[in-house]
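Work through this protein:
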Amino acid sequence: MRNINTHELTPMPARNPILKGGACRWRDIAILAALFVFVIVGLAGLAAATGWEATKYQLMQLHAGQIATLLCLSLVNYLLRGVRWHLFSNRLGLPTTAVQDMRHFLGGFAMSVTPGRVGELIRMRWLKRETGWTIERTAPLALMDRASDLAAMALILAGGIALSAGGIAMATPVAIFALAAAFVATRPKLLAGCVTLLYRTIGRFPRLMARVRIAARSLTVFSSGPIMAAAMTLGLIGWIAEGYAFHLLLTWMGADIGLAKAIAIFTFATLAGGLTGTPGGVGGAEAAIVALLSVEGIPLDVSIPATAVIRLSTLWFAILIGLAIFPVAERLSKNATQT
């Protein structure tokens, strides 16, 4: 088995369909719409099985001010993580402004429902157009962003488990997995070693493996105590804000299970949905929330509308923001290549 030789690499055109233009973008939007309908139909079916009136009653209890509060808490999460993206961008040496980085970060949400969220790599294309940096050079930014989310959510879930009792304890394996993945992803030498081991095991995709290995080694630039501490703080506050929104929602619906447990359930569902590999965790996250709330004794006529509202005010709200910013980011990045 030959070793990966990074010097053998030659530039290759991007093959990811998300980077090929408008046609694929409309296809992704169609997939997004289909997934949205799929989730709504599934939740509606459960609601019909338990009685529409009870579900309708719970939804009608929410007023505009409460919905606005949920959306604001989600926005806190997006903005803080956008600040973290800017922090990583500056650390990497990218010549971008805070406004550029926030535009890239929020615009990438339009592609959140691609499998494994790989569509969010559209941010790398915008950076290439506006700065001239290749995707290989900016890849560590995306990797570090995802690893930071994993680390923050794993710590939140672990804390929730420690402060809770009962059914949420089943989330322990997910917390351990997320912590382990985040640890590996933020250790350049360890991650590069894992990539090499994977290549020697499967013996395939040498160029891809070499590029991932190069990206992994370049993570060293982020290995600064203050940078990691700031990134972790921003991630923790951001994700806790969304978990707190779920707690408020359950309280308003008369199903207060405690702050720690509500945050843990929301975080677990988000991670579990991602582990299913479905676009945006759609289907898996909703099922996890309903199941864990049922374990806590919450009836379906409460858990179903609570699940629908929290997913609409988090994932789908982010996608809506992304769709609004996406055309602007595309236009400005194209303009940058023409100047």
